[in-house]
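quick one before i forget lol
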Amino acid sequence: MTESPPRAWAEIDLSALQHNLQVAKDQSGQNVMAVIKGGAYGHGLKKVAQVLDRENLPFLGVANAGEARRLFEAGIKTRPYILGATLPAEREEIAARGWTPCLCSFEEMEHFNQLGKTTPTEAHLALDTGMGRGGFLPEQLGQALEKLTTSPGIKLTGVGSHLPVADEDSAFTRSQFELFDSLVESIPKPPGTFHIHLSNSAGLLGFQSRTTNLVRPGLLLYGISPMASYQERLQPVMTLKSRISVVNHLPQGHGVSYGRTILTRDTKTAILGLGYGDGYPRSLSGKGTQVLINGTLCPLLGRVTMDQIIVDVTDLPSCHPGDEAELFGPHLLVSDLATKAGTIPWEVLTQITPRVTRIYR
């Protein structure tokens, strides 16, 4: 028996991932921590990590111990870096496995110091320079450094902060870089490798630091630029596709989908086998959204439903059940789709559900 093909799938171009990583290296001139949290932004944590594991990177950025454990179980050798504060119940595993946490509070510092009595935990110090999501405020830095001098269970191997508006407010971001650089210059550096990092994708594209030696791209790696002027240098990694299940001919005045969008002309429609159950946003309904079928842009008709959407193929010379449609990818950027949906590309990518088969090439 032949296995049925998927109705919706995401083609993941791993060569594009490698291309975008090289852009990050060339643009920044620094080492790269590849951010692969959220299932590698919906692209598949294990497969993406396997490719990046061959790139001799210092870290892979993950959100929590669970994601780090998945890398460990997959045999990934690149060290996981836990982005953000850790829960008390996570810390024993993080210390035992040799993963790198970022210290965001004195409570974390005390706990990791206790856990590292036999083998010190390598950790970074998180500074809050404007994000407000954790880390030590500038006026707390001296106290934090003093605490570390009496914490033999922690080996400080880096310091970092995070940019909240690098793609929105250049003036604030420049002031944030200046604050971070000034703070870093006041920190006595221990011997050995010491990682200093601030820039996300927008930060490494649009700004320069005088102290950092590591950048943390996320969205950029997957081929979408948070700053439109750099998009042409990147290659989208994910292409979301579906296929036509049926072609209908409907008369003017007929309703389409839930809520009954009324047709203003006789219309040839095609049904595609995906919907918000696959992560295709319902908020794209009624926004002038298009899909690409046989080289022609075709408008979305009516509301997005859980498992299907309807598109207008009246102007297509020819289409048939089984024909492929591109929902986003190299010809329809996910960032443009996200704008229509009233959201951001990070959300669209990470909400593509497991029902969508990932096909790697």
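fyi The chain has a mean pLDDT of 97.
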